[in-house]
Amino acid sequence: MRAAKIIAMCGAAALALSGCAGGQGNYTREGSSIAKERMNAMKSATEWEMSRQAFMAGDLQKAIRKIDSSLALNPNVVRSHVLKARILIEMGELGQALRSLHTAQTIDPQDPDAHYYLGIAFERLSRPEEAAEHFMLASELDDYNPGHAVAAAEMLVDLNRVEEARQYLNNLPMSADNAGVRQMLGHIALIQGHNEAAVRFFGQARLLAPDDQAIQEDLIRAQMLVGQHAAAELNIAALRQNRENAKRRDLMALHAEALMAVNRPVEARSLFQELLADPNMVSDVQAWIGLGNAAYMINDQRTLRRAASRVVALDPSSFEGYALWALCHRRDGQFDRALSSVNQAIERAPSDASFHALRAMILADLGRQSEAVLAARRAAQLAPHEPKYQSLQNQLRTGSYATVPTE
Questions:
Q1: Does the pLDDT at position 6 exceed 60?
Q2: Which of 176, 205, 175, 201 is nearest to 188 (CA)?
Q3: Distance (Å, whole) CA 344 – CA 397
Q4: How far is residue 131's CA from residue 121's CA, in Å, rounded to a whole number?
Q5: What is the 3-state secondary structure (H, E, C) of 340-351?
Q6: Which residue of 47, 145, 273, 317 has the fewest CB atoms within a 10 Å radius of its CB?
Q7: How many Å apart are CA 248 and CA 242, to the nearest integer?
Q8: pTM of the model
Q9: How open is the CA angle 137-143-146, to the nearest 5 degrees?
Q10: Buried/exposed code over 145-178 (b: 16+ C-beta within 10 A; e: otherwise)
Q11: What is the arithmetic mean of pLDDT over 241-246?
């Protein structure tokens, strides 16, 4: 009897031990699984970072390999699908990029980056309506990210919904305090023909981001449009103090234009000559026209003749070269040749009042008074809001016009 009890007790103990062993095994397996998930997450994050660095360095093949490794280890991370889409967009694989971004949306429909890069992809696919929709969604989900808002406004402008873009930017909570938004409002103002407002917006953007060179250049060009030439010249000169900007051809040409506008033609001529000494600029028609105008202002007939000749040779269909020749011949006292040149300029630009006025003065130089009056009348008709042409007509009609070379 005692033996039977001992055997039963041993059996119960064995069963108890067996049960404990099974429970411990389950716990161990669960802990191992959690540890493995953590390890995979760490490896995935490492692969993601390596992909990001390769992408930033421009190594797209390495970037795509690493992001695929990251997703294989952890496929439920939104930022990984977004990064893969960014890489695919740069590789031109827009269809695959859209699939990655839609996967990111499935995981988190409220992720602003997924919407933003969907906007980029649709923009590349020339689907601006969808691009604008996703940019605006990205902006709503992250309403203090100016890049999303500006991208949305740019798409609206591309869709010719300019006023809607203006109102959209003005209604943003960051509108008054963000340089990018003020800059975009400046561009919209230019499109709408509100040049003074553009100067104001670019000026505000510059105060918010004084080191942003693109904003400074936008401000300069707007100042030139509204006739704030002295302010523009000062800003260009300051910009060109930067060694990287000193030899930029576009800034040199703009600076020369501003110098002409503030009556500093000697400095402007030097800049145009420096520009045209560059082999890449030797065929630049606008630079030759600028040089010709500067040369005329300082009575540099040799340079004026050279500029006029080059403009006609480079672009025989344009009026500027013939206008320069007319000025040159008139100053040389070669009035017949001047008349022939200005007639050729008028053939190419018949609605330019200044050429008809120049023709009137050349005809007066030749003593052909009645024809001169008719030419001056034509100038006044073409530009009725310019009193100088009416004044020229009156002087010619009354005989009070002095036949001397004038601008």
A1: no
A2: 201
A3: 25
A4: 8
A5: HHHHHHHHHCCC
A6: 317
A7: 10
A8: 0.78
A9: 95
A10: bbebbbbbbbbbbbeebbeebbebbeebeeeeeb
A11: 90
